[in-house]
Amino acid sequence: MGPYQRGLVLAVALLLLPGAALIFPASAQEARSGYFYASPETQALQDDPFANPGSLWLEEGRARWQRIEGAAGKSCASCHGDNGTELIEASAAYPKFNKRLGRPITLSQQINQCRVRHMGAAALAPDSEALMSIELLLRQRAAGRPMQVSVDGPMRPFYERGKALYFQRRGQFNMACYQCHDQRPGEFVRGERLSQGQINNFPAYLIRWGTVGSAHRRFQLCDRQARAEPFQIGSPEYVALEVYVAHRARGLAVEAPAVRP
Amino acid sequence: MLNWLIIMVLLLGFASSAQSETVAPYGIVADAIPKPLTRNPGDAIRGRGLAAGRRANCLGCHRMPIPEQPFHGTAGPRLDGVGSRYTAGQLRLRLVDPTLINEDTLMPPFHKVGGLHRVAPAYRGKAILSAQEIEDVIAYLLTLKDE
Amino acid sequence: MAEIRRISVPKQVEKGEIFTVRTLARHKMEPGVHFDANRFVVTPRLLLQEVKCHYNGRLVFYAEWFSAVSSNPYLTFKLRAEESGEIVVTWVDDYNVITTAAAPIDVIDKPKS
């Protein structure tokens, strides 16, 4: 099929689905990791296992996995084994509904649940280097697996809430997530090339931060760009937003340790 | 037809709040705000400075003939020649509140304080640009003529 | 845990060959230039100031760093293989705290054919 015929088929397909194409321009678009939109230099840094700065956090994560902490005298490895094999699938499936709490929790929050309830240790501060290093390790073990967040049953209302937040305009600049990440991937906002705003790569090393941070910290950055008051890391609003954005990324391979500008 | 439709929006609703101080009242005729927001005419040189600056951040989304600044955005259209395509009144409405023309626009409302959600405390109750600054930017945009 | 230092050199090189030393240091490289309302520094300056490389005890590379160097600095440089032994890289911070990373290198003397 030549490019001309392919163009025709596409035109017919668009005619058949005018409503869908207009309302959700991104749904016609293949889901792509931010890696695809990153500069060759950033991609090269991510691909180099020695130079990738995220690998420093992995190294810390591996040490922490074995470290005994808390009143129960246990390490993560005591209950989940040296390689945490049975957690691999789950690490691609957060945020996940927590029956005891009656709401979804993030992977960060699950790690702290284990620390507090199973280890008798203190919760780690949101986005602390210690917490990010363990979470990054869990994500790295799941690297290459498809993102697979459930939005069925009790997750549904949280998904809907997150979706509303994704489409809500906020801030003095009156901007919503979809306007940049669904409508304009590939375009530039000043010097930055817009991606689809996927979260298959979080927690991620951001060169601007000089550290590894969560998807919520990235959401804060985008909300601040709109001159909106960001929500807190781990807040019900951002957990719901993460449910929506993670589901939007379903099927994309988990990427860790990822590097972004 | 729409052209003959005259919509008058007098933003008296804000009169009760402290925010009214920062937004000048204006009237919309078709797709324009024909009357200037201030008695002082706009200053194109100040307008160029505002367009290139961080507060209005026009360069965040638009390519403009401001070569000394690197990295012009591409999220919106190129603004070269925009002074030939639009009248002052049309530009005024597009700057004051572009959602009145295109509900789905990404362009920020530069002279608006009501109807916004979760504005960060540092910016709350303040329009991005004052009435005078809007006039300055319009004066600058009008200098961007097609060759 | 913050003090991770990494070095990588080829396992084996020929005498006279130019090879690359790669290093990575986990460090915030805090320039200490953010002030609070009372003009106190929010986070005090803490930089890696110097990087040195010794090849079998001989200084073969030296650099001074400053506040524009990124966090977690990655540094590579090239050396000429002389004899087998050890490559040691040393980082020195503002308080003269010294950290090192070392790697062995095997230099083979292959006669020219």
Total individual domains of chain A? 2
Quote the beta fraction of chain A: 5-15%
Number of domains of chain B: 1
Distance between the termini of chain B: 32 Å
User: How many strand segments of chain B?
Assistant: 0
CATH architecture of the largest domain in chain A: Orthogonal Bundle
Mean pLDDT figure of chain B: 88
Order of helices and strands of chain A: HHHHHHHEEHHHHEEEEHHE
Helix-strand makeup class of chain B: mainly alpha
Characterization of the model:
The complex is a heterotrimer of chains A (261), B (147) and C (113). Chain A has 261 residues and is mainly alpha-helical. Chain A folds into 2 domains: 27-48 and 148-260, Cytochrome Bc1 Complex, Chain D, domain 2; 54-141, Cytochrome c-like domain (Cytochrome Bc1 Complex, Chain D, domain 2). Helix content of chain A is 46%, strand content 7%. Chain A has helices at 3-16, 18-23, 34-37, 40-47, 54-66, 76-80, 88-91, 107-119, 129-141, 156-167, 177-181, 215-225, 236-248; strands at 96-98, 103-105, 188-189, 192-193, 204-206, 211-213, 259-260. In chain A, the strands form 3 sheets. Chain A has a 3-stranded mixed beta sheet. Chain A has a two-stranded antiparallel ribbon with strand order 1-2. In chain A, helix 8 crosses helix 9 (129-141). The longest helix of chain A is centred in the N-terminal third of the chain and has 14 residues, at 3-16. In chain A, 41% of the residues are buried. Mean pLDDT of chain A is 91; it is low at 1-27. Chain B is mainly alpha-helical. Chain B has a single domain (2-141), classed as Cytochrome Bc1 Complex, Chain D, domain 2 (Orthogonal Bundle). Chain B has helices spanning 44-52, 58-61, 82-85, 88-96, 131-141. The relative contact order of chain B is 0.23. Residues 1-21 of chain B have low confidence and may be disordered. Chain C has one domain: Immunoglobulin-like (Sandwich), CATH 2.60.40.10. In chain C, 0% of the residues lie in helices and 50% in strands. Chains in contact: A-B, A-C. The interface between A and B is medium-sized, with 24 and 26 residues.
